């Protein structure tokens, strides 16, 4: 993946603060839909539940308009005050996160009795189940999973968020294939890194020693990654015990041991990686950024991106030419809500490949490095600033929308389904109010909405018909 250009934590924090302070675009990038009322009017529930908690359950559902399968987490209201706080926290955090290895929230519903959090569905199931099924993994398989988790956690930490519940039950596999992507879920116990953290979190198997001191920081997440790495390779945790108290005692006092009969087939690099993480003093433990660049991870995680793949995706970026804000936002809606994960799999790999700094964004420098492999210097210089825009970066979802094959994604059926999603009252026309509801934004008044509508309202009747909407989207293919 080339040489990494390292930044200090302070530099990263300054850069992210700058992004946070920038004025939001007219049509917000986040398309989370929040509704009150019965979720069953728009989703068909499948049985039985695929997961259960004390106050919640998870079910598979199918969107009646799109036919796409999702997962819904159903949480009882008013059953437990802390659980209510967790729901609110999880929705608020997931709404802001945009990363290929982090759970994507699509919709949030609430009625008198329940909260409903609708997310992508991952058919591979929990990593925990896969560990029970397989017991051990090859070094390549383990390193791929761990690298993706580190990538997701680095993004979280740079955004000032500590996950605090890193364990196999909170890691999903995108599908059942051998090298499926790992997805980090369950953000209900997240905490801002700037806050003092002292509460007991996670299962004792994955608790860092400093949690017992009631004073810790985000380094507890990297400790949990070390525990998971150990389990993936040998099939059991390094600090076991017949009770939670005994497990905690072993975490605090027991030395890290690699039993010869279980570890003789694994490389010294794998053991060194685990040793660097499972250091009981958090100040001596390696950071996530160091772990991402560890020889064992780098050796076992090499994305195979051909020049042909890279050229095709970069050409789509170069040729992307949105003619209106509504066109841009609708394309993003189609990509995020209607495209299958299979349709996006190549783009996810290439995004990760280009993001050599592992911060979950593609900046001008990274894009230039990728483009110079395909295009000449003059074309690269001219196009990179145009592609990255005023922010000088591409977020993950921006990259997907701009880099996807428009001819393939803008099928008639997907355009019509997008129209139905925006046309909430099923009148056959989209009005200004429906645009405002579909695309959450910070507009000062109706004048700006009317201006956006007028950009594409061919007959100037104050509404968009399906024909006008389709013509607007087809221009992305023709341009």
Describe, in short, the structure shown:
By secondary structure, the protein is an alpha+beta fold. Helix content is 47%, strand content 12%. It has 21 helices and 15 strands.
What are the defining features of this structure?
Transferase(Phosphotransferase), domain 1, Recoverin, domain 1, disordered N terminus, 3 domains, Phosphorylase Kinase, domain 1, 479 residues, alpha+beta
Characterization of this structure:
With 479 residues, the chain is of the alpha+beta class. The protein folds into 3 domains: 31-120, Phosphorylase Kinase, domain 1; 127-300, Transferase(Phosphotransferase), domain 1; 307-478, Orthogonal Bundle (Recoverin, domain 1). The protein is built from 21 helices and 15 strands. The strands form 5 sheets. Strands 1, 2, 3, 4, 5, 6 and 7 form a 7-stranded mixed β-sheet that branches. Strands 8-11 form a two-stranded antiparallel ribbon. It has a two-stranded antiparallel ribbon with strand order 9-10. Helix 4 runs antiparallel to helix 5 (219-234), helix 13 (341-354) packs across helix 16 (396-403) and helix 14 packs antiparallel against helix 15. The longest helix is centred in the first third of the chain and has 20 residues, at 139-158. The protein starts with 8 loop residues before the first helix and ends with a helix. ATP binds at residue 73.
């Amino acid at each position: 993946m080339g040489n990494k250009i390292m930044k200090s934590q302070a530099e990263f924090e300054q850069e992210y603060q700058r992004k946070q302070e920038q004025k939001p675009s007219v049509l917000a990038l986040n398309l989370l839909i929040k509704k009150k009322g019965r979720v069953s009017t728009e989703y068909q529930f499948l049985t039985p539940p695929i997961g259960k908690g004390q106050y919640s359950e998870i079910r598979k559902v199918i969107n009646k308009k799109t036919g796409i399968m999702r997962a819904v987490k159903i949480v009882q209201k008013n059953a437990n005050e802390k659980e209510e706080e967790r729901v609110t926290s999880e929705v608020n955090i997931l709404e802001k996160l945009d990363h290929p290895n982090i759970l994507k929230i699509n919709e949030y519903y609430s009625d008198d009795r329940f909260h409903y959090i609708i997310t992508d569905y991952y058919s591979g199931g929990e990593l925990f189940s896969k560990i029970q099924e397989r017991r051990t993994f090859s070094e390549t398989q383990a390193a791929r999973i761990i690298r993706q988790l580190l990538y997701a956690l680095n993004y979280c930490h740079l955004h000032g968020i500590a996950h605090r519940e890193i364990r196999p039950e909170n890691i999903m596999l995108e599908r059942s294939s051998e090298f499926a992507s790992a997805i980090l879920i369950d953000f209900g116990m997240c905490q801002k890194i700037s806050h003092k953290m002292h509460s007991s979190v996670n299962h004792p198997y994955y608790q860092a020693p400093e949690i017992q001191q009631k004073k810790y920081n985000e380094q507890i997440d990297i400790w949990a990654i070390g525990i998971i790495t150990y389990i993936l390779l040998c099939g059991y945790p390094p600090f076991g015990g017949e009770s939670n108290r005994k497990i905690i005692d072993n975490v605090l006092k027991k030395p890290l041991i690699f039993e010869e009969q279980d570890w003789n087939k694994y490389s010294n690099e794998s053991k060194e990686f685990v040793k660097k993480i499972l250091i009981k003093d958090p100040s001596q433990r390696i950071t996530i950024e160091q772990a991402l660049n560890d020889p064992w991870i780098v050796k076992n995680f090499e994305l195979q991106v051909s020049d042909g793949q890279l050229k095709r995706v970069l050409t789509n970026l170069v040729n992307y030419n949105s003619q209106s804000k509504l066109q841009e936002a609708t394309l993003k809606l189609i990509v995020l809500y209607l495209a299958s994960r299979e349709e996006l799999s190549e783009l996810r790999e290439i995004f990760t490949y280009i993001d050599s700094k592992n911060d979950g964004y593609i900046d001008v420098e990274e894009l230039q490095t990728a483009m110079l492999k395909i295009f000449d210097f003059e074309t690269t210089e001219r196009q990179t600033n145009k592609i990255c825009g005023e922010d000088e970066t591409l977020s993950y979802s921006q990259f997907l929308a701009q880099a996807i094959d428009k001819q393939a994604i803008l099928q008639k059926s997907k355009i019509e389904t997008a129209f139905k999603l925006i046309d909430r009252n099923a009148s056959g026309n989209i009005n200004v109010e429906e645009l405002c509801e579909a695309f959450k934004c910070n507009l000062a008044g109706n004048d700006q909405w009317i201006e956006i509508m007028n950009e594409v309202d061919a007959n100037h009747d104050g509404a968009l018909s399906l024909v006008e909407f389709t013509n607007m989207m087809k221009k992305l293919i023709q341009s």
